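quick one before i forget lol
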Amino acid sequence: MNGKIETKLTGVPETLLISARARYLETKYPNGIIHDPKIVEILDAIDYDYSGRKEVSSGSQIGTAIRTEILDEQTQVFISSNPEGVVVNLGCGLDTRFYRLDNECINWYDLDLPETIDLRRNFFQETDRYHLIAQSVFDFSWIDRLPTGKPMLFIAEGLLMYFAGNEVIKLLRVLAGRFRNADFLIEAMSPFLARNSQKHPDVKKYNASFKWGIKTGREVNNWNAGLTFVNEWYYFDRHRERASVFLRMMCLLPAFRKMMKIVHLKSI
């Protein structure tokens, strides 16, 4: 026994350890894109062997850091405009965003499967403003736990690509129908990447695969889901100095540049 906390994650839930390790490594990287000391504390306390083939690739490290940077920026925009609003983090994994952005007024809900929330409880304590929900995102009874009449932001990071398109649309349609004028920040990849998860340098090591992708968030306007497209931010627009010469050249191609993105939607 080494005194560390064991994980019981398998399948898609286990992939949360990819992004957690990526943020860990980037935090330790000199002049890294992000600084996340909480994830360093967490992973140092968890019994999980990243050596050998389970070590996270440099591409995932940089990509995760960039998506964290974008989501932190846009979540902060929401909090600044709605200091007593509600943020709901869908498929939260070991995300530490509340720890970084808490303004001492915001109401925050971290939702994930029971095995993930059990792990989180070792590091995060619920309060009157911070809540943990141990349910599948598709068990819509969790929605009844959310307050009404407040500005809402839903975040889906590292989540939706693991589900079929009809499931993604159903989830967003249900939320848009219950919460008018809510904001949504979702991570999305291109259909090409979604079809080739077996080639992803990290996901291919786990019992998980991508299923959903979109070329642009503007496609949402055709879903009849009560949502409208607001904006999107592409990973390859940022920190190109960290990319290889090959990747920098590929970024000149619009389709490649837009492969990974954060999409801002609004319910209407």
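fyi The chain has a mean pLDDT of 95.
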